């Protein structure tokens, strides 16, 4: 069975039938992950069925770099899976990753979404967009620069400025406009806040639904997760109350962030790790994972989830994320300098 058909069958519910004749075990690959495990496990099970390589996962909410440094050469980590460009760069700058030169990765991961030294690679992306009230916001276009316009005074909501989603966005503003402009812009955005930054991206949609604000910053994938949330059905109402505006769609494009992977510097199973990286980068694996979490696959040969398509056309900012990441520390400093979260 081809990889495409196999993985699709696996995730369509054919695990039981395939497990009747499991592949012989052929080593292991150890994963340190910031990703939510329940969303990623089906792909790892498919990888094991195809290759015979077992996967073991250690999940983190924070502190991965510190853990790996403490383990040193005895670290069992083979691969790091993360949810943000900042964390990928942090691992590289921390000296715990290694280059991976691989034609499969080069084929499926566009250059702007991978490290120039081949030490980290994106897998899927999410866009940092504007959630807008369907009832109270007639606008169909917006830019990030517009968020400082006084027309939005008392109408804007967002989570903490220090959250890595916002830090990445603010870093992209520095990359495009410079430090002075971005500081003034942040002061303008702060002046437009309906209340101090609080909550997560879902709660920004809830605030719009409740009439607390009219627009908010949020990631695209949360809208898909809310629209399909059967366990907390009220979130469907939050999502139904908003529309997505893709900022700067008519000029430089919308800021995006990535989930990604890197090989550990002291990987005890580097060949198995490489096989897993190639597997995860394949168009089919990207499409299936993107379907589960409502993100955009990076491979030009992959497909986009229908719900995600319904959000509208995403034109990503073409600035390499490696360039954006250079300004993350300065972005964090500016958030504190203007008292954004106060």
Mean pLDDT: 90
CATH architecture of the largest domain: 3-Layer(aba) Sandwich
Shape, please?
globular
Query: Unreliable segments (pLDDT under 50, ≥5 consecutive)?
Result: 1-25
Count of the domains: 2
Q: Got a strand count?
A: 10
Class based on secondary structure composition and strand pairing: alpha/beta
Structure description:
The chain is 44% helix and 15% strand. It contains 15 helices and ten strands. It has helices spanning 3-19, 37-51, 64-71, 85-93, 103-108, 164-177, 179-191, 201-209, 220-227, 234-240, 270-281, 283-293, 306-310, 321-325, 328-337; strands at 28-33, 54-59, 79-82, 97-98, 121-133, 156-157, 215-219, 242-245, 256-264, 296-297. Strands 1, 2, 3, 4, 5, 6, 7, 8, 9 and 10 form a ten-stranded mixed sheet that branches. Strand 1, helix 2 (37-51) and strand 2 form a beta-alpha-beta unit. Helix 6 (164-177) packs across helix 15 and helix 8 crosses helix 10. The protein is globular.
Which helices and strands, and how do they pair?
Elements: H1 3-19, E1 28-33, H2 37-51, E2 54-59, H3 64-71, E3 79-82, H4 85-93, E4 97-98, H5 103-108, E5 121-133, E6 156-157, H6 164-177, H7 179-191, H8 201-209, E7 215-219, H9 220-227, H10 234-240, E8 242-245, E9 256-264, H11 270-281, H12 283-293, E10 296-297, H13 306-310, H14 321-325, H15 328-337
Helix pairs in contact: 1-2, 6-7, 6-15, 7-15, 8-10, 9-10
Précis, in short:
The protein is an alpha/beta fold. It folds into 2 domains: 169 residues, Periplasmic binding protein-like II (D-Maltodextrin-Binding Protein, domain 2); 154 residues, 3-Layer(aba) Sandwich (D-Maltodextrin-Binding Protein, domain 2), CATH 3.40.190. The protein has 15 helices and 10 strands.
